[in-house]
Amino acid sequence: MPLSKDEVRHVATLARLGLEEGDEEFYAHQLSGILGHIDRLQQLDTEDIPPTAQVVEVASRLREDEPRPSLTQEEALANAPAAVDGSFRVPAIQEEA
Q1: Per-residue DSSP letters for 14-83?
Q2: How far apart are CA 41 and CA 1, in angstroms?
Q3: Looking at CB atoms within 10 Å, which of 1, 12, 51, 78 has the fewest?
Q4: pLDDT in tens, 7-57
């Protein structure tokens, strides 16, 4: 399915790409080749292939969550430069309304 120069310019406009003068012929050949490969792929029988989101199986590398001893609230706030009502006090990043 060869593309015309006008179609290449249209695709470039949609993709917000600037083409140099004379590039249309080069990209028409490149894009036509890509579309030809897609046409060949669409001829394959994929009826027995289940849809997948991943080509290879993805295994979780995270450990299981297990409760463990941790700091108390007082210990966590002990070295804080400022604390208010059991929470860290941080400088405001926005002006108050």
Answers
A1: HTT----TTHHHHHHHHHHHHHHHHHHHHTS--TTSPP-S-SSPPPP-SPPP-------HHHHHTT-S-E
A2: 14
A3: 51
A4: 999 999 999 999 888 889 999 999 999 999 999 989 999 888 888 888 888
